[in-house]
Amino acid sequence: MNVSIDNSWKPYLNLEFEKPYFSDLVNFVKSEYNNHACYPKGRDIFNAFNHCKFEDLKVVIIGQDPYHGPNQANGLCFSVNDGVAHPPSLINIFKELETDLEMPYPTSGDLMPWADQGVLLLNATLTVRAHEAGSHQNKGWELFTDAVIDAISNNKDDVIFLLWGGFAKKKAKRINSKKHHILNSGHPSPLSANRGYWFGNKHFSKTNAILKSIGKTPIDWQIN
User: Fold this and answer.
1) What is the mean pLDDT of the chain?
2) Of these residues, 6, 44, 56, 65, which one is catalytic?
3) What is the pTM of this model?
4) Which residues contact 24 (CB under 8 A, 6 or more apart)?
5) Catalysed reaction per UniProt (predicted)?
6) Measured between alpha carbons, how far is 9 from 205 in angstroms, rounded to an integer?
7) For 181, what's the count of Cα atoms within 13 Å in the CB-facing half-sphere?
8) Is 157 labeled as catalytic in the residue annotation?
9) What's the pLDDT score for residue 195?
10) How would you classify the pairing of strands 38-39 and 181-185?
């Protein structure tokens, strides 16, 4: 695994790369990619960081695992490559976007335009074996992504964390709520959304209202 991560993150994460757990993680991921089909493509593993520089970061969305089907995962949580059918959670995200901001439903499921505006789309686990959800959990990725959240919480101010579902909400204890903004909601998966825990959270308009209130440029959530 080639750790090609944008230079803006290195002052905050370089120590992690030197820790024994990360060395073990790199060896595990290399072995998995050499012996099995895994996602996302190796060059895309750190896409979340390479499309959202540390100094530009405004919003964090936390996912769990990359998609484990062919050609889906692109290194950003909830995002799929252009031209790929939208998975159920992404469909519900876009439905909420439609009603919250009265925007047309996007044709592309690639969330790169969000990342390029300062939205860190962070999965807790950055890789997965094909067709085996959770197969790369508890191998070290969670330690690394917890360190990412710590770095953001400690070194930035007024970041908006969108915590969708129980897994993401567990990360709240790592976030200094006195200097950051936390918006909680159910997960956009059909199971949660159909029980009334997702639709109507208005997280997109609320995020932009917070950004305006602190003098920052709102996110253009529309995906062309």
Assistant:
1) 95
2) 65
3) 0.95
4) 139, 140
5) Hydrolyzes single-stranded DNA or mismatched double-stranded DNA and polynucleotides, releasing free uracil
6) 28
7) 16
8) no
9) 86
10) unpaired
d(CA 171, CA 76): 18
Distance, in Å, from the CA atom of 114 to the CA atom of 120, rounded to the nearest integer, reads 8
- The number of C-alpha atoms within 13 Å of 59 and in the hemisphere containing its C-beta is 26
The mean pLDDT of 171-182, rounded to a whole number, is 96
Residue ranges of domains in the chain, CATH in brackets: 7-214 (3.40.470.10)
Burial of 212 (0-12, 13-18, 19+ CB in 10 A): exposed
DSSP code per residue over the chain: ------GGGHHHHHHHHTSHHHHHHHHHHHHHHHHS-EES-GGGTTHHHHSS-GGG--EEEEESS---STTT--SSTT---TTSPPPHHHHHHHHHHHHHH--PPPS----HHHHTTTEEEEESS--EETTBTTTTTTSSHHHHHHHHHHHHHHH-SSPEEEEESHHHHGGGGGS-TTTSEEEEE--SSHHHHTTTSSTT--HHHHHHHHHHHTT-PPP-----
CA-based nearest residue to 1, from 16, 24, 12: 24
Closest C-alpha among 151, 165, 177, 5 to residue 75: 5
